[in-house]
Structure formats: C-alpha cells, structure tokens
Amino acid sequence: MKTTVTADTFDKAWDGFKGTDWRDKASVSRFVQNNYAPYDGDESFLAGPTERTLKVKKIIDDTKAHYEEVGFPFDTDRVASIDKIPAGYVDANDKDLELIYGMQNSELYRLNFMPKGGFRVAKKILTEHGLSIDPKLDEILSQTLTSVNDGIFRAYNSNIRKARHAHTVTGLPDAYSRGRIVGVYARLALYGADYLMKEKAKEWDAITEINDENIRLKEEINMQYEALQQVVNFGALYGLDVSRPAMNVKEAIQWVNIAYMAVCRVINGAATSLGRVPIVLDIFAERDLARGTFTESEIQEFVDDFVMKLRTMKFARAAAYDELYSGDPTFITTSMAGMGLDGRHRVTKMDYRFLNTLDTIGNAPEPNLTVLWDSKLPYSFKRYAMSMSHKHSSIQYEGYETMAKDGYGEMACISCCVSPLDPESENARHNIQFFGARVNVLKAMLTGLNGGYDDVHKDYKVFDIEPVRDDVLNYDTVLANFDKSLDWLTDTYVDAMNIIHYMTDKYNYEAVQMAFLPTKVGINMGFGICGFANTVDSLSAIKYAKVKTLRDENGYIYDYEVEGDYPRYGEDDDRADDLAKMVMRMYKEKLDSHELYKGAEATVSLLTITSNVAYSKQTGNSPVHKGVYLNEDGTVNKSKLEFFSPGANPSNKARGGWLQNLNSLSKLDFKDANDGISLTTQVSPRALGKTRDEQVENLVQILDGYFTQGGQHVNLNVMDLKDVYDKIMRGEDVIVRISGYCVNTKYLTPEQKQELTERVFHEVLSTDDSEVMHTSNI
User: Fold this and answer.
1) Which of the residues are catalytic?
2) pTM value?
3) Spatial distance between the Cα atoms of 107 and 572, rounded to a whole number of angstroms
4) Rounded distance, CA 556 to CA 369, Å?
C-alpha cells in the first residue's frame, strides 16, 4: 500500500515545524533544537489509564503468565526476518484493540529463531526447551550458514583460548548480538523510509575511490538500503505506509515502534536500546495539542500502548545466559531530560508521560527508564522523578554534565545500561559502540602473583610472568607484577575484541540499526572490568597493612593473612580512592596503546550486569575476600565464597554511609572509564528523613550534589531490606535496579538473590562507623 511521496507530503507532515537545517539532510538533533518546548511545570497535567489500556495490559500479562507455566512458543522452522514473518497482534481476534501496531513475531511472546550469531547455540536453546529445529531447515543452514561464532573460533589465538579457559576473560564470544548500537528510530517518523533510502543511495554514489575501506562501506550502505525496504514491507503487513513521514503524534509513535520492532525481529536483543525518543515525540504531541488533534488522555494512551509493546520484547536465551545477565533483561534504555548547549534544559511533557507509565500500566523493569540529570533541571521535574523512584525503584540517573565534558552532546543517549552514545554526533565520535566480553581484573592480579598459574586450580598456566615469592607482600613489587599482568590482559582482550567485531560485521552486520544512523560513524569499543573494588582494596591492604601469603607445598599462594587496618574504596578516603583512580588509568592507558578494529576508540566500563556472581565463582582468595578453593579431591569448594560487588560499587565491607560511597565514586575520572561507572545503591527511606516529602527533597539535593561533583551514574533503590527480603526469597514480584538495569527479582537465580540481599542497604547517610543491614541482621 505504499504511496507516492512528494514534496507536498513533506509540506503537510512538517507544517508548523520550525527551522530548515534539518530538512535537506537527515538530522533529528537539528530538528529537536529548532522545535522542542522545555517544560517547567509539574505533573498535574498527566492523565491516567483508559479502560482499553487496562484490557490490553491484562491480555499481555495473562499470556506471559500462561507461557511461564507451560513454556513459550518457539519458531523452529523459520529464521528470524523483518518482513517474512506475518504481522502479530495482542489479540488476533480483535485487532482494533491496539492503537500502536508492530510486534516481534506473528503472535504474542512467540520467540524468534536467530542462528546468525551462533547456530549451535540457537539449536541448543531449542533443545533446552524440549524442542528441535525442523530437519529441512537444519540441513539447509548446516550447509550454507557461517555464524559469527564460527568465524570467531577460526581466528582465536592461543592466548585468547587460555584466557577463555581460565575465565580470566569471559563472554568469548557471546551468542547474542554485540549490542550497544542505538538507531535514531525517530528518523523514520520524521522523514519516512523513502527519504532515508534516497539519502543512502546518494552516499553510496558519492564513494568513487575503490579501496578496502570503501568497498566494505559501499556494501554496508547497500545492506542498510535493503533493510529500509524491509522496514517498509514490515509496516505494510499492518497496513501502514512508513515510506512517508508521520503526520501526527500517534503516527510518530507508530513509526518509531515499527522501526524498533524491525530491529528486534532480527537483532538478538543484547542492549537493543531505544535511545532519545521522548523529546522527539513531544514535538509532535505539542503540535497536536495546539491543533486539537488529540487530547492529553489520548496521547498518554498512545504512550501506554507503545510501552506495553516494548514490554512484550523477549528473546530465546540459553540457560547459561542467566549466569551473566540474570532476569532476562532486554535493556530497552530510554533516555530523557538533560541540558542543551544553549543553556535550556531538555525536560518535556513527554518525559513525564513515559515516567507516568509506571503508574498507568504498573511498575516493570522495561523500558529501562533513564533520566539525564543536571542540577539545572526544573525542580518540579527532579522532585517528580525522585518521587517516582521512591515509589517504584525502577529509574536510573546519569550525570549529563559529566558526560558532556567528554564530548557527548545534547542529544546523547544511554545504551544498554550506563554507556553514553551520541548517535548523530557530527564530528563522527561516540556514534555507536562495539562491546563484548569482560575481564576479571582481580583474577589477573592473583594469577600474576602465582607466576601466571590459574589462581584456583594452579595446574594451568595462563600466561608467563615471574611469580612474587615474598612471604609478606611488598606494594611496589606487587604493583610491578600487576602492571605486567595488565599488559597480558589488555593485549589478549584487544585481540579478542578485534576478532569478535570483524566477524560480526562479516557474518551478522546490523544493517537495520545502522540504516537509522549517519553513514560514517565514530565507534567506541567498550572494555569491561569485573572485580574492581576487590582489586583496589587488595592493593590498599598490601600498601597500608601487612599482608602475609599462605602457600601450599608447591609454593603457590592459596590464601592471605592481613594484620592491621587499611582504607577501603568507598569510604571517602583518598588513600584508597586514589588507588581506584590509578587502576582505571593503568587499564585505560594500556588499551589506548592498541590499534582497534575500524579505528575505534577504547572506552572502559565499570559495569558487570549480574556477572559479578559468575566471576566470583571463578576466583580464588584475595587479601580482602574469600573466594573459591579446591577440596582435597580437587573439586571446587564455594562454601565460603564472598560475592564481588557489582560494577563500580564499593565492597560490602566498606565502612561509611551512603554519602561516603557517593563521594568515592564521584572522584573517579570519567575520561578513564567513559563507557560507564555504574553504582547500584540501596538506601532506606528512614535514612532520608522522617516524612515522605522530606525524603524526596533530600534525594533531590543528594543527586544534585553527586552529579555536580563528577558522578556519572546511579541506580537508585529506595527500600529497606527487611521489607523485601522475604518477598525476594519467595519469588514474588519485586522490581529493583540491580546493576545498570532493572529486574523483577523473581527471575533471578538463587545465587543472585543471595548476592542481592547481601549488599549494603544504607540506613544512614553519613557516619564514620555506619550501621549496615545484611541478611544476617534479620
């Protein structure tokens, strides 16, 4: 049903919009700058849910609950496709019930078969659910498909294989897409696919010099062009003509959903974030409100319908996936607020509407609602956001000013959990990110002390290095050894990442996501760290206390004894916090010395998702924590295991209140970890004040202070452990921010529930000897 797109089409679609610099070349950023209306008011304008909305919500909730009991349906005889899978509806018998169309599959919660990342893994997922691939499809794919994993394992060198075997570097490779690419999906709403396809064709024609780089770029542009045509076909399945621009806010939301769901049909959902959508939709909404096209209640209903569609996103996962990303997150990170370079804040009514969905259709982990915080945001909005966090504990906050200083612009958004991107940046910097795997920096340090032998098993040499033989560890000796271990670690990690992303481009290029981005993009390559706090605290113990080594009959260190006191990272003590800054700087400088695939820029991530639990189970004792150890029969004993803290969190043993934690985090240099410095924190309401109003007011002031002095991220949980402990352990619905994302705790593994409840739940804001609540206090 595609119609002819003419100049009159654009005149009608853009009627009333200001500015010209966004019309001749696609730029949602310039469109926003010319047209958005900062909103200084409060939430009093918001509307509640409609009867239709609640009916749709019940169908979605009931369907999911049913499949959680009997098992989800899977595609077994067709490969994921944007436009070859039929249209899906919440209720196939009442298609008019929906306002915003577009789903991942032909029926609600049916899971797509995605073999391009790893064919064997995709088949294993089916096997784990008691299913099998259609024999004819299996035969065809076995003979014709080369998956990303196939290519990666062909190229891995011995160092990478050793690191993978020892679990010093894990997630090599991941079977899902590499993630961290955020399309500007509002481009489809503002311009339509026909405009975007013509722009891609012009850029393809403009490349005349034939060399390796341009040959690859011409092929990529061609794949993007084809993907846009598939998006048009996908819209047509629902009777929608997305070749043209949207004419009103309902169509704008609809077009964004078609663009986004097209991605989710073929990209395996690791960090398939939504991006900076609310501010664009608000421009359409304000025009429609002024014209009387729609009421506030209708616009909220469109948003509610859209968010419910986002919440239906689900991917087929292998059982092992939960060890790293527990709770089946989809990371539909949606960014809002922030500041403009012209000094105007970027809070809009649409930001309120998206946050309002937590009330209208209920609290939920997705989409991953993210507020770009700045002390200059309107007080009414900051108070509303804090009030919603107090109620729901499902919003995260990122420091706009901190990220802007490192080149992230006014339309920057958050990808996955805490990682900033600037998709339309005109200086081709930070547009997309390539991510994959994480390193266990503590395990690398402990392995180095033992001369390169695995710190748990001791029978496997991971890398060559002279061991530290001292009975009492000397700080300078340990630091020199650690420095050499980091050389090996970063060399190996960079080799692995370059291979992963070369092969992903070759065998599973994300054409549809890239189709909604500028053709020439600047790339971040994200390198993650796990075990950060334990590494810093170990160095602090060695430097400021007396650390004795306990060795076995072969001279290998299996444990440590510490005499004396020492500062821990997270206590607002510069002695420890300076060590934290040093570790980050060492790691970043070593990464910067390497040449990265496609000229990418190395960025460091202090973010673990829930993989901190898995890493803990692969690491031996350190001077500051009890890890796993071997029994006499050689089996691994985890009975005394102390879990790593998540992300950039201080250890649970760090003394001090919530403010001490925040102060330590704010000292870290974002330029050395500009992929994200993730802090997941739990604070008791009574620590914030006697009344709810006082608690909300204090939250506003604390976040203002934290982000003003350099903080980058905070996951905010306002709750008492005693109020949620039993619910978590019984598997009831408890929504928490867990490590960069939000999760319903009923989907966590038993170990991850245990780790969550062992975290510090701050009952005081600041004290030299804070009282903290652990499960042992209940």
Assistant:
1) 416-417
2) 0.96
3) 52
4) 48
What is the rounded CA–CA span in Å between residue 720 and residue 740?
20
Q: How far is CA 765 from the centre of its chain?
A: 28
The encoded tokens of residue 55 equal 């009916």
Largest CA distance in the chain: 84
Residue 632: what are its φ and ψ, rounded to 5°?
-60, -30
Three-class SS state of 610: coil
pLDDT digits (tens, 9 = 90+) for 97-151: 999 999 999 999 999 999 999 999 999 999 999 999 999 999 999 999 999 999 9
Helix, strand or coil, per DSSP, at residue 247:
coil
Which DSSP string corresponds to 444-498?
HHHHHHTTTB-TTTSSSB-S--PPP--SB--HHHHHHHHHHHHHHHHHHHHHHHH
Distance CA 318, CA 268 (A): 12
603: β partners: 526
**Non-local CB neighbours of 778 within 8 Å, separated by 6+ positions:** 721, 722, 725
b/e map of 214-240 (b: 16 or more CB within 10 Å)? Answer: eeebeebbebbbbbbbbbbbbbbbbeb
Residues contacting residue 776 through CB under 8 Å, at least 6 positions apart? none
| Number of other CB atoms surrounding residue 542 within 10 Å | 25
- Tokens 């169309």 locate to 101
Which residues are within 8 A (CB) of 243 and not within 5 positions of it... i.e. 6 or more apart?
Answer: 2, 3, 5, 192, 193, 194, 232, 235
Cis peptide bond upstream of 518, omega within 30: no
